[in-house]
Amino acid sequence: MEEKYKQQPSNCIKIVLFGPESTGKTTLSKALAKHYHSVWVPEYAREYLQDKWNKERKICEPKDLLPIAEGQMKLENELAKETDTVLFCDTNLLETKVYSEAYYLGECDPILEKYALENTYDLYFLTYIDTPWKADDLRDKPEQRVEMFKMFQDTLIKYDKSFVLLKGDKKARLETAIGHIDELLRKRSEHVIR
């Protein structure tokens, strides 16, 4: 049953936009996918939790995390089949793990934690909090942006994930990201030629 939280094999480079709420991950995911004529994986939790809020006026509960993880991996695995170059993930299970620990006293479901650590990505872009915070039905920590950013950064360091910090306006972030992705693509093509 746990297979539904696992990445399926694919030939694409996988990039994760990683960071706290309202830091431009979706905007950048879409822009990068457009630049590379590729696809991006939306954040399943937003759809799931917005639907829950609209129907029940309830926010995320621990019991929602595995269905969110399952939906996220289903989307990622389906969309990974649509490209053999670069897949841009607006989030991943490691991000869900960070939120679980932030909201539920350091707790994380063992299944979620297992796949958050086992699923692999080529590069993480850690989005900084120098973007304006925008309220919506789901966002709720405008006063804790520094603490939340630190949790995301500490997680990448703790688990030795390769990451690049993205700061500045949309143009600066996009240019920085493109430079790093182009380097990954160059290394990949050199490896294939050999």
Automatic annotation (TrEMBL):
Top-level taxon of the source organism: Bacteria
Pfam families for the chain: AAA_28
UniProt domain NadR/Ttd14 AAA: residue ranges: 14-173
Protein name as it appears in the record: AAA family ATPase
Species: Mariniflexile ostreae
